[in-house]
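2024-03-11 09:14:02 INFO receiving multi-entity request
2024-03-11 09:14:02 INFO entity count = two
2024-03-11 09:14:03 INFO echoing inputs for audit
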Amino acid sequence: MKLTIGYFYPNLLNLYGDHGNVDILCYRARMRGITVEVMKINEETVLTDEMMKECNLIFMGGGPDAAQETMYRDLIEQKGYFLKKYVHDGGVGLLICGSYQLFGQYYIDADGKQLDGLGIFDITTRHFGKAKKRCIGNVVATLDSAITTDPVFQSISPSLSKIVGFENHGGRTYLGKDISPFAQVVKGYGNNGEDRLEGIFYNNIIGTYFHGPLLSKNWHIADFLIAKALQRDTLDPIDDTLVQKAFDVALRIKK
Amino acid sequence: MRFFITLFIAKIGYACIRFLRLGSGHTWPGHLALRLYPHILKDKRMIFPEGIIFVTGTNGKTTTTKLIRHIIEEHGKAVVHNYTGGNLLNGIVSAILLQMQWNASMPSIAVFEVDEFFLPKLLHYMNPTVVVLLNLSRDQLDRYGEVDTIVERWGQAIAPLSQNVKIIAYRDQQEFDRLENVTDRSFERFSTNSAISEDLQMEGSHNDKNADAAVRAVSHLFPLDQKRVQRALHSFSPAYGRGENIRFHEKNFSIFLAKNPASFMHNIEIVQKKGYSTIIWCILNDRIPDGRDVSWIYDIETEALRQAFSLHTTIVLSGTRRYDMAVRFHYAGIPISVSSIYDTHEAALAAILENSETDVIVLPNYSAMLEVRKVLTGRSIL
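2024-03-11 09:21:47 INFO inference complete, emitting structure
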C-alpha cells in the first residue's frame, strides 16, 4: 500500500507554507504504516504516462504572480495534457489558490489581460485590481454535501463538517452552474466575497483558497484525501487530540 | 516659526503621554508633528552634515543600527537614532524631534532603521549618505506581498539616486545582483569579516554579517580608529529582544526574536548549541505588527526544527496562535502535549518558574516579544 504524491512546481508554487500540506499528508500516512513517496515535478521534468500512473494524489500550491508566469507556459503546453487526463480519470488531488484558479477556464489579471486556464473546471477568476480589496483573513466554512455525503468522509469524520484556515487572494473566482463548491463560507470571503462559496470539489479534486496550510488543522480533509487516494473505505484513527484542540480554537478566532 | 512650534508641541505632547502613562508614546510625537507640518523632513533645519545612514532589510535592522550607533559613539560622536524601533515615517520624525534640543540643535549624524516597504517613500524626504540592504526574505506576506514586490520597489527608488549615495548590500542575496543590474549601479557587497567576528561578542552567524555591514557603513562617514571599532564590537550588547538576557527569579531568560522563517532558522542555530535541559518558550502572535497569517511557520525547515527541538525536555507555548505553533511542532515530529500550551504568558511563566532548570530561551515573534519583555521587566521596550 503506497501513497505517491505528484507534487507539481514545488519551487515556484510554495507561497504561504502550502508545501506544509505535503509534509502533513506524509506524516499522517506514515503514522498508519503506509509507505509514502513524493514525486517532485518541475518545469524541467519530462512527464510521462507511466509516471502519472504511479501517482495516486497530486498537489499544487499557490504562488506569486511572477512565478505563476514562469510555470504557466509549462503548465498549459506540457503538463496540462497529463493533468486533464488525471482529473477525468478520477484521480485524487488538492490544489491551492493560484493552481486552483489555473485549472479553470480563464484568469483575468489586474490589468485586464486574460490568461487561459486548463479548462478542467467550469470556473473563471478575475482580479479587480484596486477596485476591490484583497480577500485576506481567517476563514471558517462548512463542507459541501458533495463531501459530507461521501461514505469515506462519513467514516473518517462522522460529526465534523467545518474547515478552518486563512485566505489571502486578489483573484475572485466564480463557479459555473454544475460544479460543486468545496464548502460554504461561515466567516470570511471565500471564492469572491459575494456568493458565499469556497473552492470547488470536482471528481476527486479539491480546489481551495485556504492557506494555514489547509491540512494543518483540517485533519479530516487530510485523511479523506489519503483514503480516497488509496481507494480505502476508511483509515485507522490516530491521536489527534492536539490538532482537534487547535481546530476548536481556530473556529473561534475573530476575523 | 512653524518648525519651532511643531518641535515644541511634539516635545510637550510626548511629555504628557509619558506623564499620564498613556503608553510608550514613541511614535506619537512624529504623528502630531506631521499633522502640523507634513513636509517637516524637508525643513532646512533637518540636516545632518556628517552623514545619514539608512539600514533596511527583513532581519537585522535593529541590531545593525544599534551597532552602528555604538561604533559612532565609541569615536566620541553623538548620533540621532530611532532606537525604539519606530521605522516608519512617524517613528523617524519622532526620533529626530525628541533627540533635538529646543533650539533645534542636534547631533550631526543620524542612523535610522527603515521598514523595507517604506524605504522608497523615505528616499523622497531625505538624502542618505549610505543605504544598507541587509537581506530580504519572506515576512508578513499579507502585508508586504512577495519578496519580488519589494525588490521592484527598491529598484525604482534607488535608480534615480545620486552616485554619491553609497549602497552596501549583502553579497549572497541574488536579488541584490538583480538590483545592481536594474539600477545600473555597483553596490559594495558585505558578508562576514573574520577579524570583526572575532571581536564581536554576540551569537549567531547572522550577527557576524550585520557587524560587517555596520563597520563598512560607518567607514563612509569618517575615518575609523581600529582600536575604537574593536572596543565597540567587544562591548556591544544586543538590542531589546535580539539575544537580550533578562534575569528573573534566579532564572536566565534569553530572548531571540523569531518573526519569520529566516530569523527562526538563525535562532535554531543558537538553540542547537544549548543543552537539552534548557527550557524553550515559544510565543506566536498574529497581531497587526506580526502579520495576521501564521502559515509562514511551515516555511521553517522541518528537519532543522526537529533536530534542534525534539530532544529538549521542556517546551512551553503561549501567544494568540500557540495552538498553530504546537501543531507545527507536532507535524515536525517534535513531541508536544496540550499541557505544554498556556493561555497567558503569565501562566507559561509560572510553569517555567516551577521547573528547576535555570536557562530559558524565549522565541517570540514581534508583538509577543514586546509582551514577554513587559511580563519579565515591566517595560515593553526600554
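2024-03-11 09:21:48 INFO post-check: Chain B touches chain A through 26 residues (CB under 8 Å).
2024-03-11 09:21:48 INFO post-check: The first helix of chain B runs from residue 2 to 19.
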